[in-house]
Amino acid sequence: MSLEINVLGVGDTFSEVYYPTALLLFCEGVYLAIDCPDRYRAVLRDFRKISGRQIQVQEINDFIVTHVHGDHMNGLEGVGFFCHATASARPRLHMLPDVARDLWGRLAGGMGSLWDGERHHPMALTDYFQPMPLYTDDAVNIGPFNVQARYTRHHIPATVLLINAGGQTVGFSGDTSFDPNLIHFVKDADLIIHETNFGPAHTSIDDLLALPQPIRSKLRLIHYPDGMDLRDALLPLLTQGEIITLG
User: Fold this and answer.
1) How far is residue 108's CA from residue 111's CA, in Å, rounded to a whole number?
2) Domains along the chain?
3) For residues 142 and 224, what is the distance between their CA atoms, to the nearest angstrom?
4) Per residue of the chain (247 residues), what is the pLDDT tens digit?
5) Which of 24, 113, 160, 179 is least surrounded, with the fewest CB atoms within 10 Å of its CB?
């Protein structure tokens, strides 16, 4: 068995070059999306062009929402409307409690009412999605994926993930300032996908370069700013459209 990591986007909210950071994991015939940026079907279309993988949004039944900044969840509006309009199954949204608490407040302005040609119908999050809990003190199984979650240090509640599937483990930092406790949480993963960007709520590359070599050797960077050159990067960067297979 193997764990496949499809890199849909690598950028930050300001990027003019890349889609916002988003991953799509695949194992044993099941997809697990991490975050859902705007124009998600276009994100998948462009990933198909680069990778040759024919992935459609209807095949993705599970999304982990790491936090409610727009570059990580704005695409849920389009996905929710699309699935509702096509009578597709309601996707499951897996979230830590503080993320779940804030999500509908971000979506309700655009999704809280539907017009049928004669009258408005009030809508709720559960009309579009199936909210599912993540916990900080217990793992959750999502199909073949065993998911552990913790909160990061960020402007708002955000999530770090440790996911095991196919006998392989990947750690994903989510948006976070540098946090030794987070590093300890993911240090035994086979691959550590860690953000880097500017400002106190993100992680500087200098902090990552100071980590012990056994951890540095597992790092791949994501959520990086435009202008970070792949050729000059001191730590390896993930590239949009890349597919990583573990195992």
Assistant:
1) 5
2) 3-246 (3.60.15.10)
3) 28
4) 899 999 999 999 999 999 999 999 999 999 999 999 999 999 999 999 999 999 999 999 999 999 999 999 999 999 999 999 998 899 999 999 999 999 999 999 999 999 999 999 999 999 999 999 999 999 999 999 999 999 999 999 999 999 999 999 999 999 999 999 999 999 999 999 999 999 999 999 999 999 999 999 999 999 999 987 655 568 999 999 999 999 9
5) 113
> Who's near 210: CB < 8 A, 6+ residues apart?
none
Q: Which of 175, 220, 158, 189 is nearest to 20 (CA)?
A: 175
Q: What angle do CA 123, 129, 133 make, to 5 degrees?
A: 120
Helix (H) or strand (E) holding 20: none
Q: Which two tokens stand for residue 9?
A: 């986007």
